[in-house]
Design brief:
six-stranded parallel sheet; 13% strand; NAD; oxidoreductase; NAD(P)-bd_dom_sf; 11 strands; D-isomer_DH_CS; 321 residues
Length: 321
């Protein structure tokens, strides 16, 4: 019989770069096997004889779950559970728990960092200095790229949960006015503006909502056209929320003042992604790193440990599906 507390972490290097304390998690199991990464054809074998599996992004589909008769608990090392077939897990009596709110400070500050970088043309000036343009300037300064102040500008938020609220708080500290938009597929609220009312009013738009069938491509060519000329767009949520080709086109046309994204529709990015073209102006892309502060990743370890402890105590928490 397998140990009632034998677990595997299928992709621990997606979380731990050797800078985290895993002891809170290790203490919840009699045996915890760490795998740096796991390919699709390795999953079934690695689940044999395990009662708990920890996964960040490794897919756990219906067939895989059905082939793991001892599996009772799935601990997702993230908030999103799109890598788990929740219906299959439920049918098999497998409890699924995720992590929540661990990266709020990290993602909120990254969102504002991207917004500030766009407003101040930080990347353009940095490249100009490295290219020797400042050294050739006729004045003491170089002001080739228009800079805008955030104070007095209006920020539109799509997604006003814990993360959206944190971004709103930081934006207000810079003197911005914050408006919240209605998320497609959710019940209307008096304090949420429909997109066609929100978008023409904002100088910047940030996204903080989940990706589902209602929100996929919620920002497309029509929505981008509704934004003010020169508006800024920041996405630290999910790549599929924005039509990437439409965003590339809006930047090339000069309609947008700039865009920044920490996420793409396929990650790592696939060849041919329209946002990876070299000719797109005023675009910043970061590699899904907004969540990655060491403090945020350590919180995930703590929540994974809490979820395991609660499950074994008969009082599971952060249960999804």
């Amino acid at each position: 019989m397998p140990s009632p507390r034998r677990a595997v972490f299928l992709d621990h290097q997606s979380l731990d770069l050797g800078d985290l304390d895993l002891s809170p998690l290790q203490s919840q199991f009699e045996e915890l096997q760490l795998y740096a990464a796991t390919t699709a054809d390795q999953v079934a074998e690695r689940l044999q004889g395990t009662t708990a599996v920890i996964s960040n992004k490794v897919m756990l589909d219906a067939a895989t779950l059905a082939a793991a008769p001892d599996l009772k608990l799935i601990l997702v090392a993230a908030t999103g559970t799109n890598n788990v077939d929740l219906a299959a897990a439920r049918a098999l009596g497998i409890t699924v728990c995720n992590c929540q709110g661990y990266g709020t400070p990290s993602v909120a500050q990254h969102t504002l960092a991207l917004l500030l970088a766009l407003a101040t043309r930080l990347c353009d000036y940095n490249q100009a200095v490295k290219a020797g343009q400042w050294a050739k300037a006729s004045q003491f300064c170089l002001l080739d790229f228009p800079i805008v102040e955030l104070e007095g500008k209006t920020l539109g938020l799509l997604g006003h949960g814990e993360l959206g609220g944190a971004v709103a708080h930081l934006a207000e500290a810079f003197g911005m006015r914050v408006l919240s938009g209605q998320i497609p597929g959710r019940p209307p609220r008096a304090d949420r503006l429909p997109l066609d009312e929100l978008l023409p009013q904002v100088d910047a738009l940030t996204l903080h909502c989940p990706l589902n069938e209602q929100t996929r491509h919620m920002i497309g060519a029509n929505e981008l056209a509704l934004l003010k000329p020169g508006a800024l767009v920041v996405n630290t949520a999910r790549g599929g929320l924005i039509d990437e080709q439409a965003l590339a086109d809006a930047l090339r046309s000069g309609h947008l003042g700039g865009a920044a994204t920490d996420v793409l529709s396929v990650e790592p990015p696939a060849k041919g992604n329209p946002l990876l073209a070299a000719d797109i102006p005023r675009l910043i892309i970061t590699p899904h790193s907004a969540w990655g502060a060491v403090q945020a990743r350590q919180r995930i370890v703590g929540q994974l440990a809490e979820n395991a402890q609660a499950y074994f105590a008969g009082q599971p928490r952060r249960v999804v599906g």
